[in-house]
Specification:
8-stranded mixed beta sheet; Structural Genomics Hypothetical 15.5 Kd Protein In mrcA-pckA Intergenic Region, Chain A; 5 helices; 2 domains; 189 residues; alpha+beta
């Protein structure tokens, strides 16, 4: 594992994999190393196709980072805006977790594949690869998504018509277009 000397201008290449879903839903992206985890959350939402409608938290070396809820003092997390990607993944090969929708429990592994100091600064996050569409919001986590896919694939399934109506007739789980994601990311300057 290579550890950069300082953060100025460094770029993390991350592989984000949604756990518990087969075949895997994943994205490979490049972001500045100085990005806070709060900002990384926004990038992940765009890259994966989530709707930013639920609570989230990061798990980094046994510590939880999220948005503190003053009305819920028992929900204890460190503020997500106080830690950078460089601190969360200081070396290549380092990984941590991102959990979106604490009810459904969509857990993502974030792996720092490479850390580089490119010739030109990175103007905005860039998605360079990925596979498969993100599951729809509120479908019940990995188990619910598996049931949803079974209902979509089987026209004789008792819930087929309701599920297709809910997700839309054009829902294609294998569909992913990197250029469409990058159009969204360009807006995050």
């Amino acid at each position: 594992m290579r550890l950069p000397r300082h953060d100025t201008g460094f770029v993390h290449q991350l592989k984000i994999t949604l756990l518990g879903v087969e075949p895997a839903v994943w994205r490979r992206l490049q972001v500045t190393s100085s990005l806070t985890l709060e900002r990384l959350h926004t990038v992940i939402q765009k890259v994966l196709g989530w709707q930013n409608a639920h609570l989230y938290e990061f798990e980094v070396r046994g510590r939880r980072y999220g948005v503190p809820e003053p009305e819920e003092p028992e929900y204890e997390v460190e503020p997500v805006w106080k830690i950078t990607l460089r601190e969360a993944a200081p070396a290549e090969g380092t990984s941590f977790r991102y959990v979106y929708d604490l009810g459904d429990g969509w857990t993502h592994e974030i792996l720092a594949e490479r850390i580089e100091n490119p010739d030109k600064p990175l103007g905005h996050p860039v998605c360079i690869a990925g596979e498969r569409r993100c599951p729809p919001e509120d479908c019940g986590g990995p188990g619910g998504y598996e049931a949803l896919l079974a209902a979509i694939r089987d026209p004789d399934h008792p819930e087929h018509d309701d599920v297709v109506r809910w997700v839309g007739a054009g829902f294609e789980p294998e569909f992913f277009v990197v250029t469409a994601v990058n159009r969204k990311l360009r807006l995050l300057r």
